[in-house]
Automatic annotation (TrEMBL), chain A:
It comes from the Eukaryota. Belongs to the endosulfine family. The gene is Ensa. Keywords: Cell cycle, Cell division, Cytoplasm, Mitosis, Phosphoprotein, Protein phosphatase inhibitor. This is Alpha-endosulfine.
TrEMBL record, chain B:
Keywords: Repeat, WD repeat. This is Serine/threonine-protein phosphatase 2A 55 kDa regulatory subunit B. Gene3D superfamilies: YVTN repeat-like/Quinoprotein amine dehydrogenase (2.130.10.10). GO terms for molecular function: protein phosphatase regulator activity. The keyword Acetylation does not apply. GO terms for cellular component: protein phosphatase type 2A complex. The gene is Ppp2r2a. Belongs to the phosphatase 2A regulatory subunit B family. InterPro entries: PP2A_PR55 (IPR000009), PP2A_PR55_CS (IPR018067), WD40/YVTN_repeat-like_dom_sf (IPR015943), WD40_repeat_dom_sf (IPR036322), WD40_rpt (IPR001680). The keyword Repeat applies.
Length: 99, 447
């Protein structure tokens, strides 16, 4: 509905330019697979004792890599530690809405 | 925007607020769904901690008819608990994604509640009498010494304080590989659907050990995945018809009479996009977060990140009405992407007569659009406005330029205060609005 001058950029495109300036390696596919795969993998907690022990054996003499900022991404080389996994606690307390 | 007073515009007043006052919100207390039952007498909420709280409207006091009855706690129970699927290394949240009420058939009330993986049918029943005068038991339940029993009497039912019990009657499990986003009860009141990111299943309320898969959009090669199911709903009157929305902004209407597997839609609703406006954000903000049929069944409403659209089921190529919820956010998409707010899933709802639609926004604002007058209003759910019968003051966001007095600038909006869930009483002008951890009830000013 807005009539834009040919030279001026729509607000959305301006925001896109801002984002690409900050993150030049942002995936080429707009929207698309990255978000969807992340959505489908919600809740996935990777700990495989086989992987863990093999990685430990491979890296006997090296420093074990620790987790990056996103602990839930599949990284392959990363060895999860119990500290990485968030505490799960079931809430058997009454809701405050009922208070 | 809607000015105060004037004609037939509704004047909304604060009625009640439920929940803790403190700012430090425990994750479990985050409200994740709100739903009135078919009569509006009951209001259910679900939270991230897997708990359901049901409120019941008080009977109206005929003498003091300042306002309609208040909602008080009727029942509360733990619906779902956290689980861990060891086989798949998958942590299953107990968060209640949706609650849907069954129409009332007898004295008890029934609702379906679901988390990411399991749907449960709950029976909520009242007990207001208990048998007294047993021959072999004392009133406290202890067994009497039989040698002390010298007479026989017939136990009788005596009134007791009302007790409301919730019991799980059916558990519908193990039918979803992906995360359930919707449940919807069919107008036949015998079946219902559950939808996850890639599949939709049809269940019979009596049968828990099997369900029929009616939609499957999983590609053979997951690398080719481009679209997921975001919401699904049965038509309110046609028991063979349902719709599902996608992350690409399309809605598909399916007819279960056409084939067992409804992978081919009967209708595809999609608004053509102007390719010159396409950006990195286009697909993300076009993703539909909610789809709701009108009560009449003639229209459906969809919510995407920035707007609400009304579709006529007879017209697939564009919506008949579009309402901007917070267009001023279009020039903030970069930061909304960085803080993940762009992925927030707002719901929307119709009023009982399908003349007004409502949805939430940020800063604890919520918006209403009157389809007849074409006027809209922004209101705020805040404890500062909590004097009963005081009319809520409309809010205005200043997108740019000079901010007028009483306006709020876009940059001052609190994006942590989101109203994702709202519900409208099926018959009255009573609305339930959920902030992060509080439930607000507003009513129109009577008299």
């Amino acid at each position: 509905q807005d009539t834009q001058e040919k030279e001026s950029v729509t607000p959305e495109r301006a925001e896109e330019a801002k984002l690409k300036a900050k993150y030049p390696n942002l995936g080429q596919k707009p929207g698309g697979s990255d978000f969807l795969m992340k959505r489908l993998q919600k809740g996935q907690k990777y700990f495989d004792s086989g992987d863990y022990n093999m990685a430990k054996a491979k890296m006997k003499n090296k420093q074990l890599p620790s987790t990056g900022p996103d602990k839930n991404l599949v990284t392959g080389d990363h060895i999860p530690t119990p500290q990485d996994l968030p505490q799960r606690k079931s809430s058997l307390v009454t809701s405050k809405l009922a208070g | 925007f809607l000015g105060a007073g004037g004609g037939n515009d509704i004047q909304w007043c604060f009625s009640q607020v439920k929940g803790a006052v403190d700012d430090d919100v425990a994750e479990a207390d985050i409200i994740s769904t709100v739903e009135f039952n078919h009569s509006g007498e009951l209001l259910a909420t679900g939270d991230k901690g897997g708990r359901v709280v049901i409120f019941q409207q008080e009977q109206e006091n005929k003498i003091q008819s300042h306002s309609r009855g208040e909602y008080n706690v009727y029942s509360t129970f733990q619906s779902h608990e956290p689980e861990f699927d060891y086989l798949k290394s998958l942590e299953i949240e107990e968060k209640i994604n949706k609650i849907r009420w069954l129409p009332q058939k007898n004295a008890a009330q029934f609702l379906l509640s679901t988390n990411d993986k399991t749907i449960k049918l709950w029976k909520i029943s009242e007990r207001d009498k208990r048998p007294e005068g047993y021959n072999l038991k004392e009133e406290d339940g202890r067994y009497r010494d039989p040698t002390t029993v010298t007479t026989l009497r017939v136990p009788v039912f005596r009134p007791m304080d009302l007790m409301v019990e919730a019991s799980p009657r059916r558990i519908f499990a193990n039918a979803h590989t992906y995360h359930i986003n919707s449940i919807s009860i069919n107008s036949d009141y015998e079946t219902y659907l559950s939808a996850d990111d890639l599949r939709i299943n049809l269940w019979h309320l009596e049968i828990t050990d099997r369900s029929f898969n009616i939609v499957d959009i999983k590609p053979a090669n997951m690398e080719e995945l481009t679209e997921v199911i975001t919401a699904a709903e049965f038509h309110p009157n046609s028991c063979n018809t349902f719709v599902y929305s996608s992350s690409k902004g399309t809605i598909r209407l399916c007819d279960m009479r056409a084939s067992a597997l409804c992978d081919r839609h009967s209708k595809l609703f999609e608004e053509p996009e102007d390719p010159s406006n396409r950006s990195f954000f286009s697909e993300i903000i076009s993703s539909i977060s909610d789809v709701k049929f009108s009560h009449s069944g003639r229209y459906m409403m969809t919510r995407d990140y920035l707007s609400v659209k009304i579709w006529d089921l007879n017209m697939e190529n564009r919506p008949v009405e579009t309402y901007q919820v917070h267009e001023y956010l279009r020039s903030k998409l970069c930061s909304l992407y960085e803080n993940d707010c762009i992925f927030d899933k707002f719901e929307c709802c119709w009023n009982g007569s399908d003349s007004i639609v409502m949805t939430g926004s940020y800063n604890n604002f919520f918006r209403m659009f009157d389809r007849n007058t074409k006027r809209d209003v922004t209101l705020e759910a805040s404890r500062e406005n909590n004097k009963p019968r005081t009319v809520l003051k409309p809010r205005k966001v200043c997108a740019s330029g000079k901010r007028k007095k009483d306006e709020i600038s876009v940059d001052s909006l609190d994006f942590n205060k989101k109203i994702l869930h709202t519900a409208w009483h099926p018959k009255e002008n009573i609305i339930a609005v959920a902030t992060t951890n509080n439930l607000y009830i507003f009513q129109d000013k009577m008299n």
